[in-house]
Amino acid sequence: MAKPQRSFACTECGYRAPQWMGRCPECGSWHSFSEVASAAGKEKAAASLAGADAPVPLSAAKDEDFARVPVGISELDRVLGGGLVPGAIVLIGGDPGIGKSTIMLQALHALAERGVKGLYVSGEESVRQVKMRGQRLSCVADNVLVASETSVDRVIGFMEELSPGVVVADSVQTLFCEGLPASPGSLGQVREVAFRLAQTAKRTGIPVFLVGHVTKEGAIAGPRTLEHMVDTVLYFEGDRDHLFRILRAVKNRFGSTNEIGVFEMREKGLAEVTNVSAVFLSERPENTPGSAVTACMEGTRPVLVEVQALVSATGFPSPRRTVLGLDGNRVALLAAVLEKRAGLRLMAHDLFVNVAGGVRITEPGADLAVAAAIASSAMDRKLPANTIILGEVGLTGEVRGVSRLSLRLREAEKMGFSHAVLPAASVRNQNLESGLTLVGVKTVSDAMQALLA
């Protein structure tokens, strides 16, 4: 009988080779080769599928009603889409010290207070260290079980034996599968550990949180397929030296990916921030040029944020363009529009733009506020303190409409604003019931005249 040929394939690009290779010659990834099943293996797999369910029409598929389990931390529940789904795999990443382990321990404690048993598996800390952190956070409960373990086989055994309501694996890079020769944290180990935990979660219906390390580029360490294997991917954003943390969903099979949760790091752990707009505007300077306020939609929640700009003469041949919290290319586009359409001279000036509070704005509805902040600093004239600015700016200088305008204006009115500068088309076409004085503008020049005249 002929010996079956062995074949290896890169998990990143699919390149095949007759033997294992450390580095893929096609895509350049390291340690990404895994053995492909042989013909005999495929026949065995086909035989094992003989008793599987046959394909059915989508219209005839059974509707599975699942009840979400609220964690009890409203900001976390918001990002998850309303709570935990049975059998869901949630991957949470962030920089070291950002608060990943803290929020997980607080989540288990909140669930324990509602009678849900949780299992916290730590591969980096001993049980005593976890208890010390729990005492500092006031998160010590009988329903929270703790284990210091790195073997994924034993973790799966705990899940099947104890039947907890939720499991936290901190972190996935410290767990290993005993059947693989690679060391913990390698690409093959991380992929296999995540796969086995996902299979167990789907079979038992136990939700699992996976805490992941991040690389220096800010992405979760391990194979890229790790994010495709899980149901939800959450990222903690913010500077560890600042108070506020933003929890953002970048993937969610059971909810929206536009929601954010805002927390404040305190001595007793992470505290929820319910009135986000008030926090971001609490230290806003008054009567200072270069400061504008706009309203951004984060999922279903309108958030008021402050955009700051500083325009100063440069002493270098090429002026600097430094941007934090916004797309740098978008800011360069707006500066060019102000030069061409509003008559500002910015080519001989350094330009610095920042979004206060560590928020990142991705929607174009903040364009007009950014342009107004730049113009205000360049002309050294302050913007009206009680005015909110909304609108997308086009290359010809026109001001375009934004979505969900009523929600944004309602949040601005609640925060004490009295005036709003908006696209003229939005004021004319939408039936806006607002207590604000609405000023419609068609172009950037009209907006600058209304704000800085």
| Largest beta sheet: strand ordering | 6-5-7-8-4-9-10-11-12
Detail the poorly predicted runs: 37-51
How much strand? 15-25%
Q: Helix share of residues?
A: 25-40%
The tally of strands reads: 21
Count, helices: 13
Overall structural class, as computed from helix and strand content, comes to alpha/beta
Alpha-carbon distance between the two ends = 90 Å
Major sheet description: 9 strands, mixed
Provide a descriptive summary of the structure in words.
The chain is of the alpha/beta class and 453 residues long. The chain is 29% helix and 24% strand. The strands form 5 sheets. Strands 6-5-7-8-4-9-10-11-12 form a 9-stranded mixed sheet. Strands 13-14-16-15 form a 4-stranded mixed sheet. A hairpin with a 7-residue loop joins strand 10 (244-252) and strand 11. Helix 5 (152-162) runs parallel beside helix 6 (187-204), helix 9 crosses helix 10 and helix 10 (367-379) crosses helix 13 (444-452). The longest helix has 18 residues, at 187-204. The radius of gyration is 27 Å and the shape is globular. Mean pLDDT is 87; it is low at 37-51.
